[in-house]
């Protein structure tokens, strides 16, 4: 007999809830990382490299902590849902907060 977790593995309301929770985590962490980049005074490619490094760390932590190392249990396309799909939306939020914080800290001294 199949386990109960396998029966609800791709139950659409559960997958949508997981995707919404993941989106919230990525949005909030992009705001925090953008704030850190702005306050640190990162400009140009340094800011984007900082974003990519933090994105890798955050995605890895989500897979290890929230998904317990098994993202395929919580998402349909497993790791791509966690790390690949929301990167552009999160990048836009990051750039917005990054430039705002950089302007507040360094331009208006």
UniProtKB/TrEMBL annotation:
Domain of life, per lineage: Eukaryota
Name this polypeptide is given: ER membrane protein complex subunit 6
Family: Belongs to the EMC6 family.
Membrane topology category: Multi-pass membrane protein
Pfam families (UniProt xref): EMC6 (PF07019)
GO cellular component, one term: EMC complex
Keyword DNA damage recorded: no
Signal peptide: none
UniProt keyword Transferase present: no
InterPro entries xrefs: Emc6, EMC6-like
Organism, as annotated: Coemansia asiatica
Keywords: Endoplasmic reticulum, Membrane, Transmembrane, Transmembrane helix
Cellular localization per UniProt: Endoplasmic reticulum membrane
Cited PANTHER family: ER MEMBRANE PROTEIN COMPLEX SUBUNIT 6
């Amino acid at each position: 007999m199949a386990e109960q977790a396998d029966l609800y593995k791709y139950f659409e309301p559960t997958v949508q809830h997981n995707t919404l929770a993941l989106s919230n985590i990525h949005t909030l962490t992009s705001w925090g990382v953008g704030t850190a980049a702005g306050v640190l005074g990162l400009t140009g490619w340094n800011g984007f490299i900082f974003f990519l490094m933090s994105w890798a760390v955050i995605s890895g932590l989500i897979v290890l902590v929230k998904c317990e190392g098994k993202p395929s249990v919580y998402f349909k396309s497993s790791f791509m849902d966690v790390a690949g799909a929301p990167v552009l939306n999160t990048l836009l939020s990051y750039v917005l907060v990054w430039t705002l914080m950089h302007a507040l800290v360094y331009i208006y001294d």
